[in-house]
Each structure stands twice: as structure tokens, then as C-alpha cells.
């Protein structure tokens, strides 16, 4: 019997490399493919379309990509109808290299034309391989359809690009100048998300605290642009109290949207973290008491060479102020080990600052030279890989210790969680996320819908997560996704 239905459903698979910006773009690409009628699969072998959403921030991402493209070549030889697309910031930067190394790729697209992904795939089907990179942003990705990983949580891009020039970082070169989205559009988007049942949002940008800086320039002319209030929000227009909207205004406005219960943001730059942001976090219940504040290094010399614009003391002062004002604050960070010229004494200072800051979590990276960045030129000062990796082991121990101590201090407490789903390792356990962004695993002894809010009692601490018992479900989500629960 011909199985016509099965035969016509085409499938897609996406792999994401890199940061949350990329995960966010991946959700958009998935949304577009689903609009085209494709269904998601985890398996490359059964996909008709494979999208690799790449990242160029750290080196091993390119090695992984070229390895992956090598494997896909065989698949494409077996199934010439398979379409392969490569997007993201590595594609933006290395378009020619990808074309050269992997001529079997059908579409190469950049970070500014995510919305064209499916159009380009269709064009490539008719006309052969296409590369389309746009240097300037056409539209913010948030205007695109989306297929979310979690039905209760959404990312909202508030700004793209970066105007800083950290010596190690390729982002300004590939993502371009900082552009903030208009204030009113952002608040409108959050209202739309809340109406669709989303209760948690994360505001995304390379340097969220400088949100609005470029809007100032637009507003500075002799005549007020007619859309001034749309661009900058009421804070600016009503009485011209200052020349631009602040990030803290935006935090307050999105937190006030009916239905939004948790607001997070990533990443702020320590040099731009303003008292107004800390005050907003201390005053507004919807703003989660979690600060991700990239340190990068604890040595003043290394920080200066990185052009970070703060010293270790200044960083610690900001942390202290935040801790003093925001009750029960969780703190996480990014740290780079082995920046060119980093001496043992510099690294020891990083260890000291990390211990003093008592990070709950840290993303730690071994420095990797990105061609075209200032630091990549300092070849004579590169730190040998073996030294960097030994330092990384020492740093991880310090982070693990503070993370574990932080977790142990939660034992016996009640935490509000949003239920995410079954635990990946054990289907008898459910997983939820605390306001601190910690995962709590707890036994699945009753059906709970993903997106429900619940109280759990923390019963044990692991290094990076918690174990708990369900106390009560406090509210169910508006949408209907029931997590299958194994009877216990
Ligand atoms: N090498 C290692 N880590 C890097 N990061 C950015 N560029 C590099 C690089 N060249 C890290 C920084 C940043 C995070 C997103 O990635 O810590 O905060
Ligand atoms: Fe890169 Fe520095 Fe901009 Fe962050 S602030 S994106 S590290 S240049």
C-alpha cells in the first residue's frame, strides 16, 4: 500500500554552535522551516534539509564545523536531494572558505538575513548553490516566526552588534555596530509573547547595558523625530529628563507587562552596569535576582590589554553593590584563560577574584586567537596550550567550589521553579529552573505541565544543580503541553 502521507512530509535538522544569540536565531530558522511544512528531526540521516548555525567566537567551533561538513559530504553523495545550509557568524565571516572547503553546501547565509533561510533554500533547489551575506541588518530576527525550545520562555533581542573593542573578540567585526531596537517595538513584542502564554523572557544583546546609546544619536537632532516616543519610550519624551532611554527603563517596562513573571538579561558589560539597573533589580519582583557579569580576567594588566575598561577592584565593587542591594543574588560570569601575555601572577589574580566574587557559575574559555582581532597579532606572547589547560583545571576547581557552596546553602529552602520537562538522564525525574537559573531535579510523582510554576523543597546539592521534592504546583501554564510522566 503506498504510504503517501509519510512520503510527502519533509524533515529538517539543525545544529547550533555558540552562544544564546545563535540559539535564538536557530529557533527562528526552525520556525521558518515549519512554516514551509517541514518537520524537525534530530537525525541527519532522515533530514531533507540540514542547517548548521555557526559561531566564530571561539576557534574550536570552526574545526567542528569543517569536520561536520566533511561527514555531510558522504550523506549528500548518497542523497543528492539533501540540502545543506550554513548560517551564523562564522558563515558571515568565512563565506569563501566554506565555499572552497565544502562545495557541496547549498546555501551560505549570514547573521543579518536569517529571515531569508527558506527562500534561499528554495532558490538553490532551482538554480544551484547560493551565498548571500548582508553586511548591515535588514530586520531584527524577532520579527520572524519561531519554534521555541520551551513553550513558556522566549528570548527577545534588544540590540545587535557591539561598539566595544575587546582585543580578543571577533563580534564587532562580524556583527557590526551596535543597533538598538525601538523601545515601543520591544515592549509590544513582550506584550505579544505574554498574550501567547510566555511567562519568562530573556533580553539578549552583546552589551545590553548600553541599550539605547545609538537611539540617543537619532534623537539629538534639532528637531525631534516624529517617532521619538516609539524609539525611546516615555522616559525621554516626557519632559526630556535625559537624552536616551536607559536599559533599566526597558527592564521596568517589560517587567510590567501583564503575564510576565520572570525577566532575565544577558550580557551586561561591567563598565556599563549602572546603579539604575541594580535598583530596578532590587525593586521589581519580576526581575530575577541573577546577574551574569563577564569578568574575563582578574589581572588589571590583562584587563587593560583586553581593553575591558575596568579593574579587578572596580569589578568587585560593582559585585558588592549589587549584592548589598539585591537580596539573595546569584552571580555568574565568563572568564578567559591564557590571553596573550598572561603570566602566572596574572592568572593567580584571576583565581583570587573568582574566589572573592563567589561565582555560582562561570563559562570558562581557553583563549583562542581570532584572525583580525588585536590580540591575535600578539603571537610572541601566546600562552602555550599545556599551560593554559593546566590553568583552566585550577580555575574550574575554584568555580566548582563556590558553585557547590552556593548550592549547599539552598538545601532545606523552598524555591520557586518553572517546570521544564523530564530530566535528560532519568525519565523518572522532572526538571525545573529556579529564579537563580539553577536546575532542580525532582521525582515525577504526578503529572505536571511544562511551564507550570511550582514550589520545591531543596533536599540535596550537586556541584551545578540541585535535587528536590515537589511541595505544590502554584500555577499551570496557559498553553497545553503535558509532560509524560512515568508512573511511580
Ligand atoms: N577566545 C576565548 N574566549 C572568547 N570569548 C570571546 N572571544 C574569545 C576568544 N577569542 C568568550 C568571552 C565572552 C564569551 C561570549 O566568549 O569570555 O564573554
Ligand atoms: Fe565582544 Fe567585548 Fe563586545 Fe562582548 S563587549 S561582544 S566581548 S567586543
Summarize this, please?
This protein has 488 residues and is of the alpha/beta class. It has helices at residues 4-8, 20-35, 60-78, 89-93, 95-101, 117-127, 171-175, 183-195, 213-219, 228-232, 234-237, 247-255, 275-283, 300-306, 312-325, 344-357, 385-408, and strands at 11-16, 39-40, 49-54, 83-88, 107-109, 130-132, 153-157, 159-160, 179-180, 200-204, 262-266, 290-292, 330-337, 361-366, 414-422, 429-434, 439-443, 453-461, 465-475. The protein has 17 helices and 19 strands.
Residue windows where pLDDT falls under 50 for at least 5 positions: 1-6, 484-488
CATH uppermost class of the largest domain: Alpha Beta
Largest sheet: 6 strands, parallel
Distance between the amino and carboxyl termini:
41 Å
CATH architecture classification of the largest domain: Alpha-Beta Horseshoe
- Overall mean pLDDT stands at 88
Structural class, by secondary structure, is alpha/beta
Strand order of the largest sheet: 2-1-3-4-5-6
- β-sheet strand percentage: 15-25%
Beta strand count? 19
What is the CATH topology descriptor of the largest domain?
pyruvate-formate lyase- activating enzyme
Shape descriptor: globular
Number of domains: 3
Could you estimate the helical fraction of the residues in percent?
A: 25-40%
Bound ligands, each once: 5'-deoxyadenosine, iron/sulfur cluster
Spell out the CATH superfamily of the largest domain: tm_1862 like domain
The total count of helices amounts to 17
- Using the CA coordinates, give the radius of gyration: 23 Å
Amino acid at each position: 500500500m503506498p504510504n503517501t502521507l509519510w512520503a510527502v512530509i519533509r524533515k529538517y535538522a539543525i545544529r547550533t554552535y555558540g552562544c544564546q544569540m545563535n540559539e535564538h536565531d536557530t529557533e527562528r530558522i526552525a520556525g521558518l522551516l515549519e512554516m514551509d511544512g517541514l518537520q524537525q528531526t534530530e537525525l541527519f540521516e532522515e533530514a531533507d534539509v540540514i542547517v548548521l548555525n555557526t559561531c566564530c567566537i571561539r576557534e574550536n567551533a570552526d574545526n567542528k564545523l569543517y569536520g561536520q561538513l566533511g561527514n555531510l559530504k558522504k550523506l549528500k553523495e548518497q542523497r543528492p536531494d539533501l540540502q545543506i545550509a550554513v548560517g551564523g557568524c562564522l558563515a558571515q565571516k568565512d563565506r569563501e572558505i566554506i565555499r572552497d572547503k565544502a562545495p557541496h553546501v547549498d546555501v551560505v547565509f549570514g547573521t543579518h538575513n536569517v529571515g531569508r533561510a527558506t527562500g534561499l533554500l528554495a532558490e538553490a533547489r532551482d538554480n544551484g548553490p547560493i551565498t548571500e551575506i548582508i553586511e548591515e541588518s535588514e530586520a531584527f530576527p524577532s520579527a520572524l516566526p519561531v519554534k521555541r525550545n520551551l513553550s513558556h520562555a522566549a528570548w527577545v533581542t534588544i540590540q545587535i552588534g557591539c561598539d566595544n573593542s575587546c582585543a580578543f573578540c571577533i563580534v564587532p567585526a562580524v556583527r557590526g555596530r551596535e543597533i538598538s531596537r525601538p523601545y515601543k517595538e520591544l515592549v509590544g513584542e513582550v506584550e505579544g509573547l505574554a498574550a501567547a502564554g510566555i511567562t519568562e523572557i530573556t533580553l539578549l544583546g552583546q552589551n545590553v547595558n548600553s541599550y539605547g546609546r545609538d537611539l540617543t544619536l537619532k534623537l539629538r537632532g534639532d528637531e525631534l523625530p516624529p517617532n521619538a516616543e516609539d524609539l525611546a519610550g516615555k522616559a525621554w519624551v516626557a519632559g526630556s529628563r535625559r537624552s536616551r532611554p536607559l536599559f533599566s527603563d526597558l527592564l521596568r517596562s517589560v517587567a510590567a507587562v501583564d503575564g510576565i513573571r520572570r525577566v532575565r538579561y544577558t550580557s551586561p558589560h561591567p563598565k556599563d552596569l549602572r546603579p539604575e539597573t541594580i535598583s530596578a533589580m532590587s525593586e521589581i519582583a519580576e526581575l530575577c535576582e541573577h546577574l551574569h557579569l563577564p569578568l574575563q580576567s582578574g589581572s588589571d594588566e590583562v584587563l587593560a590589554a583586553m581593553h575591558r575598561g575596568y579593574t579587578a577592584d572596580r569589578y568587585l565593587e560593582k559585585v558588592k553593590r549589587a549584592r548589598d542591594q539585591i537580596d539573595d543574588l546569584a552571580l555568574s560570569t565568563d572568564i578567559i584563560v591564557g590571553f596573550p601575555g598572561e603570566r602566572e601572577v596574572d592568572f593567580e589574580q584571576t583565581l583570587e577574584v573568582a574566589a572573592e566574587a563567589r561565582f555560582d557559575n562561570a563559562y570558562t574559555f581557553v583563549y583562542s586567537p581570532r584572525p583580525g582581532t588585536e590580540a591575535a597579532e600578539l603571537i610572541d606572547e601566546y600562552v602555550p596550550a599545556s599551560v593554559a589547560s593546566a590553568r583552566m583545571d585550577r580555575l574550574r576547581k575554584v568555580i566548582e567550589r563556590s558553585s557547590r557552596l552556593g548550592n549547599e546553602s539552598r538545601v532545606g529552602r523552598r524555591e520557586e521553579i518553572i517546570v521544564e520537562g523530564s530530566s535528560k538522564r532519568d525519565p523518572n525525574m522532572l526538571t525545573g529552573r529556579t529564579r537563580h537559573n539553577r536546575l532542580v531535579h525532582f521525582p515525577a510523582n504526578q503529572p505536571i505541565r511544562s511551564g507550570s510554576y511550582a514550589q520545591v523543597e531543596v533536599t540535596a546539592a550537586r556541584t551545578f544543580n540541585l535535587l528536590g521534592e515537589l511541595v505544590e504546583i502554584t500555577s499551570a501554564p496557559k498553553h497545553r503541553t503535558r509532560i509524560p510522566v512515568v508512573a511511580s
